[in-house]
Amino acid sequence: MSAAAVPALLLAGSVSAGAQGPATIRGVVYSCGSGAAVADARVDLRGLDGGRLTHLTADAHGRFARVGVEPGRYLIVAFAPARRAVLTASSPRTSVAVGTVAATASRSALVETDDVLDVRIGIPEPQLQSIDGRPTLFVGARAHSSDPSVSDDPHPACDPPTVPMAVSTANRYIIH
């Protein structure tokens, strides 16, 4: 085979990565307070451009992934499993609150063709507050005006509201 034929074969067997298919969204759900992974968190990928909804479950290390995501805008919502919490506060007097709490946070993202988008989504820790003189458990730094699981607006707990875009793969070539 001649030296001129090798580049022609390589060119014939290559395609632009931009011509590839759907993208991947992967990431980790973690606790804002401790940084620890949140095992078994439910993660919803809600398409804002067509109503696509995908439910995922994070593994024991808080990791989740979905391959084959169509390009578009997404709201990524993480739901920590409900857990029983006991919190105490000692100022000015000792208060104790016991209850079952669940936490939710969400971030928005733009996914383009062939992206591999890495997402970190922090879940707030339960906190103790005095409401009408009674110790009360709540989750999150502030009350949201709407439920983040049904709102199209991101409700982050400890991350920026928008996930940074994936590094572009449009200028790469794949040799088959």
Strand tally: 13
- Helical residue percent? under 10%
- If helices are DSSP runs of H or I spanning 4 or more residues, what is the number of helices? 1
**CATH superfamily membership of the domain at 15-82 and 102-125 and 145-164, which one?**
Immunoglobulins
Which secondary structure elements does this structure contain, and how are they paired or packed?
Blueprint: H1 5-12, E1 14-16, E2 23-31, E3 42-47, E4 53-57, E5 63-69, E6 72-79, E7 83-89, E8 95-101, E9 104-111, E10 116-123, E11 126-131, E12 134-139, E13 173-175
Parallel strand pairs: 2-10
Antiparallel strand pairs: 1-13, 2-5, 3-4, 3-6, 6-9, 7-8, 11-12
Organism: Vulcanimicrobium alpinum
Protein name: Carboxypeptidase regulatory-like domain-containing protein
Pfam family, one: CarboxypepD_reg
Any overview of this molecule?
- With 176 residues, this protein is mainly beta.
- It has a domain of 112 residues: Immunoglobulins (Immunoglobulin-like, Sandwich).
- 5% of the residues lie in helices and 47% in strands.
- The chain is built from one helix and 13 strands, in the order αβββββββββββββ.
- It has a four-stranded antiparallel β-sheet with strand order 4-3-6-9, with no helix packed on it. Strands 5-2-10 form a three-stranded mixed β-sheet, with no helix packed on it.
- β11 and β12 form a beta hairpin.
- The longest helix is centred in the first third of the chain and has 8 residues.
- The chain is globular and about 55 Å long.
- About 12% of the residues have low confidence.
- This is Carboxypeptidase regulatory-like domain-containing protein.
